[in-house]
Amino acid sequence: MKQYFSFQWHITDECDQRCKHCYIFSENSNKKLDAMSWQQMQDTFYNCLDFCKVYDRLPYFYITGGDPILHPDFWKLLELMRQHSVPFTILGNPFHLTDEVCRKLKEYGCEKYQLSIDGLRQTHDWFRKPGSFDITLEKIGCINRAGIRSVVMTTVSGTNIDEVPGIIDAVVAAGVNVFAFARYCPTSAEKDVGIEPLRYHKLLSDCDKKFREYEAAGCQTYFNKKDHLWTLYEYETGAFQISEAVEDGMIYGGCNCGNCHLTILPAGDVYACRRVQNSKVANVFTDQLSDVWVCQMEQYRDYTKFEKCSKCELLAFCRGCPAVASGKDGDFYAADPQCWKEVS
C-alpha cells in the first residue's frame, strides 16, 4: 500500500491576527507579507505531484497561511486539487467561516479544518485577538454541519499549561471532532518553552486521565496524542510496548521530519519543518523537490546524531520534538528540553 507524503503549504502570510507566538510575526511585526501568484501556486502543486510520482507516494496537503482563505486564488487552488482528486486539510482562522463557506469547502474535498485555541477566553484572546475564543468555539459547529471534521490544536507553553484541561472541556462541549496539543517552539535562541520536564509529564498524566474519563462517558471527540513524548509516557505506563519484530536501523514512529513531510512558504522557501527556524533546504520555484529530498534533506535523517535519543530504546518510536530542541539552542539533534527520561 502506498504511503502518504504531507506538504504543509503556506500560500499567503496575510492574516486577520498577529498572534504573539506566530512564526511569521513574532520576531518582526513589520515583515513584508508574501503570497504566491496563481502561476506559482500551479507550479508548486505540480512540483509536489512530481515528487510523489518519483517516490511512489500519495500527496496530502495541509493548506495554510496566514489565513489561506484570504488569498485571492484560494478557491481556484481548491478546484485544481479537486480536478486531481488530491485530499487536503485547511489550517486557518474562524472569522470567514459561514455555513455556506463550509459547505463549499466540503464540495471541493476539504477533509478537516483546523482551528487554534491557546488558552481559556482571557488568555486566548490575549494571544490572538479579542473575541476570537468565542468565535472559534462557535465555528466548530459550522464546520461539523458541513460534514468536515473539526480539529482544535493548542500550542502549550508556560503561559497556558495550567489551562489545558479547561480547554479540553470547552472544545468537547462545543462538539469538536479532534483535539490535540503541541508545545510552543521558541522563535529565537533567547526564548524558552517555559515548562520543566516533570511539569510537562504531569500535564500528560492529567490529560490522559481526562481523555479516559471522556471516552468512558461515550464522548465522540478523538484525542490525538500528537506530541511524541506521549510515546515515552505510554511506554512507562505500559500502554505502549516495543514489539519483538522491531528491526535495527528502522524508524517506526516519532517526528516526520526527514521521513514524510516538507513545508513550503509563500515566497517559495522549502523547510524541513516549519517549526525548525533554521531548516530551509531549498526554494520550490527553482528546485525540484525530488532532488532536494535525497540531497539537502539527508542532514535530518542521521538518527545516530540525536544527543540523547540515540541512547534510548525508544529512538525508533519517539525522539521527542526536535523543533522544540532546535528552538532552544539551534541544534536539531539536541535533547528535547521537556523529556524527563534519564539515559546513560
Give me a quick take on this structure:
With 344 residues, the chain is an alpha/beta fold. Helix content is 32%, strand content 15%. The chain has a 10-stranded mixed sheet.
Topology readout:
Elements: E1 4-10, H1 38-54, E2 58-64, H2 74-83, E3 88-91, H3 99-108, E4 110-116, H4 121-127, H5 132-145, E5 149-156, H6 164-173, E6 178-183, H7 197-216, E7 222-223, H8 229-237, E8 261-264, E9 269-271, E10 280-283, H9 289-294, H10 322-329
Parallel strand pairs: 1-2, 1-8, 2-3, 3-4, 4-5, 5-6, 6-7
Antiparallel strand pairs: 8-9, 9-10
What does this structure look like?
With 344 residues, the protein is an alpha/beta fold. It has helices at 38-54, 74-83, 99-108, 121-127, 132-145, 164-173, 197-216, 229-237, 289-294, 322-329, and strands at residues 4-10, 58-64, 88-91, 110-116, 149-156, 178-183, 222-223, 261-264, 269-271, 280-283. The protein has a ten-stranded mixed beta sheet. Pfam families: Radical_SAM, SPASM. Keywords: 4Fe-4S, Iron, Iron-sulfur, Metal-binding, S-adenosyl-L-methionine. It comes from Ventrimonas faecis. This is Radical SAM/SPASM domain protein, ACGX system.
Total strand segments = 10
Mean pLDDT: 93
User: Tell me about the biggest sheet?
Assistant: 10 strands, mixed
Trace the largest sheet across and list its strands: 7-6-5-4-3-2-1-8-9-10
Helix content: 25-40%
Task: Provide the succession of SSEs.
Answer: EHEHEHEHHEHEHEHEEEHH
| Amount of beta strand | 15-25%
Sheet/helix structural class? alpha/beta
Uncertain segments are: none
Bulk shape: globular
- Number of separate helices: 10
Question: From the alpha-carbon coordinates, what is the Rg to the nearest angstrom?
Answer: 20 Å
Distance between the termini: 39 Å
